[in-house]
Prior knowledge:
10 strands; 44% helix; binds iron/sulfur cluster
Amino acid sequence: MFLPSCVSRVADQAARGISPSYDEARQLTNIIASADEKTAQAIFDVAATIRQTHFGNTTGLCAIINAKSGRCGEDCAFCAQSRHYPEANSPDYPLIDAETVETAARTMKAAGVNRFSIVTSGLGPSPSEFKRLLELIRTIRQIGLLADASIGLVDAERLQRMKQAGLVGYHHNLETSRRFFPSICTTHDYEDDVQVVRQAVNAGLYVCSGGIFGLGETWQDRLDLAHTLEELGVHSVPVNFLHPIPGTPLAKRPLLTRLEAGKIIALYRLILPTKHLRVCGGRGDVYGSDTVGPISHGASGLMVGDYLTTKGSALERDIDQLSKAGLQPEPSVLGS
Length: 336
Ligand code: SF4
C-alpha cells in the first residue's frame, strides 16, 4: 500500500526513537485525520511495527483502585465524580481502608499486572488523608508491585514524601490541549496541571500523563496535547476515550468510532514513538471485547480491571487474548 511520503519519513525516525518536528507532526496529523479506511489500515500497520520495535512482545498492564470517589469540587465536564453533576450518580465514599487496597493489589499482581495506582477524586488530599496514602504506597510496594498514585494537584514536597515511601510513578492527566481545556474545566487552570506534571518529572518519578478523547476536541487539539506531553518529557501516556455518562454535560457526545480511536493511537505512536501508550477508560466502548485491537493500532499498554466509575473488561479475558496474540505482560522491574 502506498504511504504518503510524510508518513514514511516520520515512521523511519520513529523506528529510531525520534519524534517528528512540530511541522512534520502537523502534516502527519492532517494526513491521518483525512485518511480513508484503507490508508488508515496501512498507517496502523506502521504504528504497530514501531510499537514492536520499541516494546517487543510485551504489553504494559496497569490497574487502579478508586480509593476515594465523588465529592469533587472541580467541574470537569466528562467526570461523574464532580459535585457539579449530582445527576451523574457516581459512587461517593471517603478514602478506603488498607485491607481493601491490599486485596485488590494482590489480585492484580496474581494476574500479571505490574503497576498499581491509587486514585483519589478531588484537587488533593487533606493532611490526614495524605498520611494514610503514604501507608497505602508502602503496602503496594511490599506486595511487589510498582506503586503509582494519582491524587491531584500535589506540590514538590508531597511528591518527594511519596517517593520516599516507595512511589514509583505519578499520574496526572492534562486531558486535552491548552486551547480546548477551558471548554472542559473552568475551576482550575491548565497551567496548574502542567506544573504538577513538570514537578513529577523533576522529582525523578515515572510520569504518566495523557488525556481523554472524544470530548469535542479537534485534531489540532490532539496534536497539541501530544506535543505538550513530548515537551514535558512524560514517560507514559494514558489514552482514554470518552464514555459519555448520563448527568454530565458530555452525556450526549457520540462514542468515538474504532477507526477514529485507532487513528488517535497511531498518531500518538508516531509522535511519541518510545512512550508507553496505555489505553484506559472507554476501551470497551470502542473496542468491545477485542483486547488486542488497540495494540494493533500502536498501543503498548492497557489498563485492566475496572476504571474509576465504570466497569472494565474481564481481566482473565484480557490476559488470555494477549497471550494468544503472543503478548506477555511486561515484567515488573521489582522482579517479585
Ligand atoms: S476529573 Fe478529577 S478533578 Fe475533575 S471532576 Fe473528576 S475527580 Fe474532580
